[in-house]
What we know:
Layout: H1 4-30, H2 50-85
Helix pairs in contact: 1-2
Amino acid sequence: MAGIGDLTKVALGGLATSVRRFERAAETIAQPTPMVADKVELGNSPLPDKVGATVDLRIQKYAAIANLRVLSTAMELEREVTKLGK
Length: 86
């Protein structure tokens, strides 16, 4: 059976993942978009997906909020268990 400490670890791990993904999406959005030329050059890297990165920002925002709520619940449970142990 998982303990409160395990719940805290999962929440912190999820929060760290959300922050990393949020940062990656923000970096994509911050990349300058090159001007579109009248010619096509093969071998160029594709344009950054700023729309997808914007969606990722919102998803990671809510994932971080959810993980913070799990962390808050774990802390509340720990306080209650400590009270019961007295």
